[in-house]
Amino acid sequence: MASRAEASEERSENGSIGLPDCGDSLDPMTFEQILEMDDDEDEREFSRSIVYGFFEQAEATFRKMEVLLQKGDLAALSAEGHFLKGSSATLGLNKVKDSCEKIQHFGQHKDETGTVEEPDNALCLSRIQKTLDAVKIEYAEVEKVLRRFYHEHV
User: Which residues, in sequence order, are bridge partners of residue 110?
Assistant: First the structure.
């Protein structure tokens, strides 16, 4: 008998268990490319290791960003935003990626698009704090979905 999590998942055209609809939080095409590297669809050891590694990386980066905010280190915040932007893009975590890109721009004394200079450090730090608060929520939502995908009870 299938668990409730398994019963609520749908099978894709090729028979693999697909992700639930995550709206624009997760790009299914990108994530499917990661899943295609799994040797065993039931165990999904390869993709699980990448995803769970990202969870650890994201949580550590969020903690580091909080410290950097207290120090007012815009350049380091920009670097951390850039780092996490790349990791989240690899998995197709669109909202997380977009928010991290904004943090990167704010840390470079720019607006959220990266096109307009913003010389006010306090304003940049305030924008980073607001965006960091938002990205933590975006991350928590997609983390929950992915943990369920890997049959972890959350």
Answer: 117
pLDDT at 152: 84
CA–CA dist 144, 154 (Å, integer): 7
Neighbours of 21 (CB within 10 A): 10
Q: State how far Cα 35 lies from the chain centre.
A: 17
pLDDT tens per residue, range 90-112: 999 999 999 999 999 999 999 99
What's the pTM? 0.86
- Contact at 8 Å (CB) between 38 and 45? yes
Give phi and psi for 74, each to the nearest 5: -65, -40
CA atoms 96, 93, 83, 151: torsion sign? positive
pLDDT value at 7 more than 90: no
